[in-house]
Write a structure and sequence with these properties.
Order of helices and strands: HEEHHHHH
Radius of gyration: 58 Å
Distance between the termini: 177 Å
Number of helices: 6
Strand order of the largest sheet: 1-2
Mean pLDDT: 74
Number of strands: 2
Largest sheet: 2 strands, antiparallel
Strand content: under 5%
Length: 260
């Protein structure tokens, strides 16, 4: 009809603009909602994150890192308190002010020199044993002289010689550094026991020779025994002269050559 405006085309005009505007509004609202949700999440989760990184106390009362944490950027390790036994290397260390170990104590002082009275008493005790075989030696020599019980005489004299040598060995184990005045007596005693052992050995050979070859055999051994016995007697006399003064000073028994 003439004068009437043309009809709008399908899909264009006011209704299309209204639809596009609604979509834009909906997108803005969705974005705002998402932003609000993120902000709420951050605000709500922050305290839990702080607790997870906070320090907690172990059984000793010292603060430690939270579960699963060994410390990292932003976390400082608590310094060890005085008295803690462990250091970062795992080695133990003494706490400040601790007392020194026993190994640091001063060593014992050197032992003092021997006591002269004690050393004199030790020699006196050894002399008590020196005359033990005297009677058996006298009996054996008498049997050898009478050509009787020769095998037993030879055995007894051999044991007497061994006994004298044992006394000499024991004498060498004693110390007399605190008793220098005993040196002459000790020299005489060593000679006396050495010559006595020699005499006994020679007499034993004399007795055995007679047992093997008859009475009168082994005279050479008998003469050697007599000579050694004479030297032993002289040395015993020299010993008792030097020793008895020392024995008296320390209240020890005096001796005679017959008991040495």
């Amino acid at each position: 009809m003439p004068g009437q405006p043309p009809a709008p085309e399908h899909g264009s005009g006011g209704s299309g603009d209204s639809g596009g505007s609604n979509v834009r509004i909906l997108a803005v609202i969705t974005a705002i909602v998402v932003l609000l949700a993120v902000a709420i999440t951050v605000v709500v989760m922050q305290p839990w994150q702080d607790d997870d990184g906070a320090t907690v106390a172990d059984s000793s009362g010292r603060p430690t890192a939270g579960p699963g944490h060994s410390g990292g950027p932003g976390r400082t390790t608590q310094p060890a308190r005085p008295g803690d036994s462990a250091n970062p290397s795992g080695n133990t260390s003494a706490s400040p002010g601790s007392s020194p170990s026993a190994s640091a104590s001063p060593s014992a002082s050197p032992s003092a020199s021997g006591d002269p009275g004690t050393q004199a008493a030790a020699l006196s005790g050894l002399l008590d044993n020196s005359g033990a075989s005297r009677q058996s030696v006298i009996n054996a020599v008498n049997n050898a002289s009478g050509c009787t019980a020769l095998t037993a005489a030879a055995s007894d004299l051999s044991r007497a010689a061994d006994s004298r040598n044992a006394l000499l060995a024991e004498l060498d184990t004693l110390k007399f550094d605190a008793l220098p005045e005993a040196a002459p007596a000790l020299s005489a005693l060593r000679t006396a026991w050495r010559e006595s052992a020699s005499a006994d050995a020679h007499y034993a050979a004399w007795a055995q020779a007679q047992a093997d070859s008859g009475c009168g055999a082994g005279q050479t051994s008998k003469d050697a025994g007599d000579a050694a016995s004479g030297r032993a007697t002289a040395a015993k006399q020299a010993f008792v002269q030097a020793w008895n003064d020392i024995a008296t000073r320390f209240g020890l028994p005096t001796r005679t050559e017959l008991a040495i």
